[in-house]
Amino acid sequence: MKALWLWLIPVSVLFLLGLEQVESKKYQRCELTRVLVENYNFDKTFLSNWICLVEHESELNTSKITPKENNSKNYGLFQINSKNYCSEGRKGGQCNKKCEDFSNDDIGDDIVCAKMIQEREGFKYWKGWDRFCRNPQNLPNLRVACNLRSLSPLRTPRGFLGHG
Ligand SMILES: *[C@@H]1O[C@H](CO)[C@@H](O)[C@H](O)[C@H]1NC(C)=O
Ligand SMILES: *[C@@H]1O[C@H](CO)[C@@H](O)[C@H](O)[C@H]1NC(C)=O
């Protein structure tokens, strides 16, 4: 019995540490590049803008939360602001999402919202893009650094065939 307890404690600790890691993730540049193309069908033309933006907004950290001067907060990989696009503690905002859901390691919902923001307001919505990525010379060369050419979406959505 005693031996069982001695075994259980370290195992539980490891389990809890594991859970914490699942909640938050810090990407590497090329890792995120691959995930955005393969799993989320990002257009390669603008990918270096997205990567540059995320690097300057969240340092590729999915759990980053930044309090802003105007009492709002920016959430997650894309630092989506709680005043307009999501709502704290409940679903809301223009993306109809709970802001807290943007700070876990599931980036699918973040991406849907970020793409909507980009379509409506352009990349200039993000201060990090405006300051550091607006000049194309500052964008990372993903073709060289991350072998962008070799990447393609894992699942081709119906009707998308022939475009890629
Ligand atoms: C990611 O951001 C969270 C919240 O700000 C912080 O606690 C964590 O240390 C960061 N992770 C890394 C690897 O920087
Ligand atoms: C508050 O600040 C954030 C980040 O700077 C900005 O995106 C948002 O539009 C501001 N909201 C208001 C109501 O001023």
Automatic annotation (TrEMBL):
Keyword list (alphabetical) reads: Antimicrobial, Bacteriolytic enzyme, Disulfide bond, Glycosidase, Hydrolase, Signal
Signal sequence range? 1-24
Any one Gene Ontology molecular-function term assigned to this protein's record = lysozyme activity
Q: Cite a single GO BP annotation.
A: killing of cells of another organism
Q: Which PROSITE patterns match?
A: GLYCOSYL_HYDROL_F22_1, GLYCOSYL_HYDROL_F22_2
Which residues belong to any copy of the Glycosyl hydrolases family 22 (GH22) domain?
95-113
Disulfide bond among keywords: yes
Task: Name the reaction it catalyses.
Answer: Hydrolysis of (1->4)-beta-linkages between N-acetylmuramic acid and N-acetyl-D-glucosamine residues in a peptidoglycan and between N-acetyl-D-glucosamine residues in chitodextrins
The record's annotation in Pfam families points to: Lys (PF00062)
Which superkingdom does the taxonomy of this entry point to? Eukaryota
Q: Which EC number(s) does the record attach to this protein?
A: 3.2.1.17
Q: Which PANTHER family has this protein been placed in?
A: LYSOZYME C (PTHR11407:SF63)
Q: Which family does it belong to?
A: Belongs to the glycosyl hydrolase 22 family.
Q: What name appears for this protein in its UniProt entry?
A: lysozyme
Q: What organism is the protein native to?
A: Drosophila ananassae (Fruit fly)
